[in-house]
Write a structure and sequence with these properties.
About 15% of the residues lie in helices and about 25% in strands. It is α+β, with helices and mostly antiparallel strands.
């Protein structure tokens, strides 16, 4: 899973270690690392509300050997016909890790 913001795909690509669909954001209903994560998310992300359901993914740490480090950020160079810069992705987009490793700019990923 790679992250795109501020006109670039960041060079750290963490591995998805665990994924859980529809997790109720109520810390008292969970234990361990999931409880700790929910408590933190409720404090740090005001758009999340206690009790709502969210998908939760645990990712490898930035320094983990499971995290892929690209040679550098992948700069967004996509433009509309009007000449205005357009985001590479606004929600989610899929591509292969191999393509991410080879790309220097987002136009090299277009067509995925």
């Amino acid at each position: 899973m790679a992250f795109y913001t501020q006109g670039q795909i960041f060079p750290l690509v963490p591995r998805i270690l665990k994924s859980q669909d529809r997790v109720e954001m109520t810390p008292e209903k969970h234990e361990g690392e999931l409880k700790v994560l929910i408590e933190r998310l409720l404090i740090e992300t005001p758009r999340r509300e206690k009790g709502q359901a969210n998908k939760i993914m645990f990712l490898s740490a930035p320094t983990s050997p499971e995290t892929v480090v690209l040679s550098g950020p992948i700069k967004n160079d996509l433009v509309a016909e009007s000449g205005k810069t357009i985001a590479y992705t606004q929600f989610q987009r899929y591509t292969s890790l191999e393509r991410l490793r080879m790309a220097k700019k987002t136009s090299e990923l277009k067509g995925d």
